[in-house]
Amino acid sequence: MTRRLLTPAEVRAWRAQNVGPVGFVPTMGFLHEGHLALMRQAKSECGTAVASLFVNPLQFGPDEDFGRYPRALEADLAKLESAGVDAVFTPGVADLYPAGFDTRVEVGAAASPLEGAVRPGHFAGVATVVLKLLNIVQPRRAYFGQKDAQQCVVIRQVVRDLDVPLEVVVAPTVREADGLAMSSRNSYLGPEERTAATVLFRALSAAERTFRGGARDGEGLCRRMAEVLSAEPLARPDYVSVAHPDTLAEISGEAGEGALASLAVRIGSTRLIDNLVLRSG
Ligand code: PAF
User: Fold this and answer.
1) Does ligand 1 have an atom closer than 6 angstroms to the CB of 154?
2) Is the CB of 170 within 6 Å of ligand 1?
3) Which domains does the chain have, with CATH numbers?
4) pTM for this one?
5) Is 126 in the pocket of ligand 1 (CB under 6 A)?
6) Is 52 in the pocket of ligand 1 (CB under 6 A)?
7) From ligand 1's centre to the CA of 26, what distance in Å?
8) DSSP labels for the chain?
9) Residue 35: active-site member
């Protein structure tokens, strides 16, 4: 039975009764197989798994999709139950941001390029809520998906810089059969857009093939991705990038093993992101 916890005080009380190692999976809900894979990993590695469902207003810009972000609490609770999750924290906005709340966790260089450049304030919102959730849940390990590669880099930076006593685990992106990375935002796509959305993975795969073929110039790899995207009429790229996987500094010369190819593309009014770590084999 997944125990539902509504407030930070309820989580603390539950933790006082459950003192062993906890694996924690923070989410914004509308759970898909990518989330559930993280839950199962947390459960098998830590023995006790805790999730959170919270659509965090702090990480959405004024023109973004906070209001229409998909929510499906009852279905999510059933999925958590079947994944064997022990407890789920479902706070309301006022539980995490009561009147007078006035602190932000600002991360430096890692939060500036890519998503940070297009979505000002986004990573301060992510870092702030994640640090709060970690302080409340006090897990041994916290689990995140590689699909949000920059988020993972930002969270690792926060954990390192602020001496948060836990291990950050990043799990591989879970994809649909045609390569589209699973994301709650895929639910916005109409049928034609859903077909067009495969262009993200096709562009990344083209960069990967080029890299494996020995052409490793960062700018050339970006051009290859842009070329594939330009053949899809419904796709409007925000950026394509080949960057250092730890610093996210853009690579203009030769990209090394493990370089991060990433992109953000609008398909109609839906903005999708994806990435691949470039490896030679
Ligand atoms: O990746 C997400 O779903 C969110 O950014 C997170 C980590 C739950 C913080 O709100």
Assistant:
1) no
2) no
3) 3-171 (3.40.50.620), 184-276 (3.30.1300.10)
4) 0.98
5) yes
6) no
7) 6
8) -PEEE-SHHHHHHHHHH--S-EEEEEE-SS--HHHHHHHHHHHHHHSEEEEEE---GGGS-TTSSTTTS---HHHHHHHHHHTT--EEE---HHHHS-TT--------GGGSSTHHHHSTTHHHHHHHHHHHHHHHH--SEEEEEGGGHHHHHHHHHHHHHTT--SEEEEEPPPB-TTSPBP-GGGGG--HHHHHHTTHHHHHHHHHHHHHHTT--BHHHHHHHHHHHHHT-TTEEEEEEEEE-TTT--B--SB--TT-EEEEEEEETTEEEEEEEE----
9) yes
State pLDDT tens for residues 55-88.
Answer: 999 999 999 999 999 999 999 999 999 999 999 9
- The atom of ligand 1 lying closest to the CA of 55 is 10
Q: What is the pLDDT of residues 153-166, one digit of tens each?
A: 999 999 999 999 99
Counting atoms of ligand 1 from 1, which one is nearest the CA of 155? 7
